[in-house]
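Q: Give me the 3D complex with 4GS.
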Amino acid sequence: MRIDILTLFPAMFSGPFGESIVARARANDLLDIRLWNPRDFAVDRHRTVDDTPYGGGTGMVMKLEPLADCLEQVLATGPKVSTVWVTSPQGELLTHQMVLETAQSERLVIVCGHYEGIDERLHALYPTREFSIGDYVLTGGELPAMVLVDAVSRFLPGVLGDLNSALADCFSDGLLKYPQYTRPEEFRGLRVPDVLLSGHHEQIRIWRRKESLRRTLKRRPDLLDQAVLSPEDLRLLEQVRTEEQ
Ligand code: 4GS
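A: Here is the predicted complex, encoded as structure tokens.
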């Protein structure tokens, strides 16, 4: 996948994109990430990228000219772009569904928002789609851009050894993951649940499913409304509800 990121702080990306799975995907030519700084497209002496808001008020607004010139250069080459993603607390909350959808496209373009936001006319000029990574305020849109790239990377063919492990993770089936354990069997008096040591694959499967349902009910009951539940799930959920009384 080709990924273009427009950012006033390209150096912020070197850590996250220079380590671990994303770095390996880049080294294997599965990810072609290019960073662009709109400041390089500002033509005035101070290379201005922001200005005061019309109508008054505090803070600054990202100017259109350097951003549009930068974006036009980005869009002029490479595969066709149907969506320009823009980070913003006003955007759609990023979901597993949006990540999966984005992973299907050949190319990903992200504009990192800064200051009070970007001049609204950007959305009239390009096929933008705003996304947010949560209801809190960050200092810039770089971390949200890294989050999207990281989450999308997991679904690109060849990036994870095993696509099934990407899909088996939380949210694919709309439930939280069950508790995990590894050696030793006992640590400071705390034992691994017996069923996991039993070797009974069917009992283990049922235990895990039930604990997934228990966690989801306790921590994220909102997810249960969307989850696809089998008759067995509904039975396990009923058991959990009685146990938790
Ligand atoms: C987010 C967020 C964000 C908003 C950027 C204030 C600097 C900041 N962007 N998800 N100006 N949450 N952006 O907080 O996407």
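A quick observation: The radius of gyration is 23 Å.
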